[in-house]
């Protein structure tokens, strides 16, 4: 059974439609990507999934059940806007939040200590939030979203404001949660994180779902327009090959070519080989970033 089923939800604010007939499902142990340009309707969707606002029509179910107060303990939320109390001790507020979600004080305390150890910051237990750096407050907020062992976690820009080492730490943690069976609804503008973490995605555009499905299938629908080729020396005449529309030389050697038809790749390879050994040749699949820009870019607000 799916952990989360979103079925044709609609949300209007006056005459403005924020979400228009969105459906998707998330399996247990899956990280699902919810993407879209600013104002596309992602936050509104996440709020509906969290039960903070109700859809005007459509329905959401959690392991087959409709939303009720009981669901509160199975949902976790890492909001984009950070909202910790600066003057309150880390332990006091995390344990309080866990208790609000149905966990005993003792268990919450044990969990918090385990998380702080995992993030190698046990000394934060007794510190006030304002004493921590922004990135470390972010780690505490992450802990707040998962302290009660939720089955479904909604993460909005989970890695913003973190240095590369901490991004890796939290990425690994998100994967571990997934492997432990947690379902994660993951929203971000960082397409490389989506490529790495998500199997299925929805791209929303102006309140509508415009592209949905497994990333690997979505990529097959978009043309392969880039070819990378390298040899020991220079390769002359690449720009004259039929189907090549642009040639860029990498600083560190090799070329990246834009092509307008699929047959151009083989012509490039033959051309390069005719001049000597080829050290690299690759027809690149489109990146999610390119797909995103193609899908929502033209009329991006
Ligand atoms: N409370 C509200 N009242 C009126 N309009 C709203 C409200 N919340 C959202 N909207 C409108 O609904 C649309 C979708 O907004 P939403 O915040 O869901 O987008 P988003 O995809 O999360 O954008 P961003 O990436 O900028 O956070 C926008 O046009 C927004 O102005």
UniProtKB/TrEMBL annotation:
* Keyword Transport attached: yes
* Domain ABC transporter, residue spans: 4-231
For molecular function, the Gene Ontology terms on record are:
ATP binding
Q: What is this protein called?
A: ABC transporter ATP-binding protein
Residues spanning the membrane: none
Q: Which residues form the signal peptide?
A: none
Q: Which UniProt keywords apply?
A: ATP-binding, Nucleotide-binding, Transport
Question: What family does the Swiss-Prot or TrEMBL record give for this protein?
Answer: Belongs to the ABC transporter superfamily.
PROSITE patterns in alphabetical order: ABC_TRANSPORTER_1 (PS00211), ABC_TRANSPORTER_2 (PS50893)
